[in-house]
Amino acid sequence: MQTIERAYQLARAGEARDVASLKQRLKAEGCRAVDALLAQRSLTAHLGSICAAAFKADPEPPTKATPDP
Fold first, then answer.
1. pTM score of the predicted model
2. Residue 62 placed within a domain
3. SS3 20
4. How far is CA 26 from CA 17, 59, 68, in A?
5. Position 43 in a domain
6. Does residue 14 fall inside a structural domain?
7. Do the Cβ atoms of 47 and 13 come closer than 8 Å?
8. What does the alpha-carbon distance between residue 63 and residue 69 come to, in Å, rounded to a whole number?
9. Residue 30 has what DSSP assignment?
10. Which of helix, strand or coil describes residue 15?
11. For residue 19, what are the domain limits?
């Protein structure tokens, strides 16, 4: 799979918080020339928007509700 296709796949899957973490993930997977391929502003902005919309943050542990006095 090509780097840009993989970037979109990861972004849509909600597996990256932002473009920086997306780039780290791609590099860790062995993709080459990540910075050069994702340097175009419009591409970076589009991927950033997808990441922001789809990111699945780890849910915080539920807090114990305290009753009102």
1. 0.77
2. no
3. helix
4. 13, 24, 48
5. yes
6. yes
7. no
8. 18
9. T
10. coil
11. 3-54
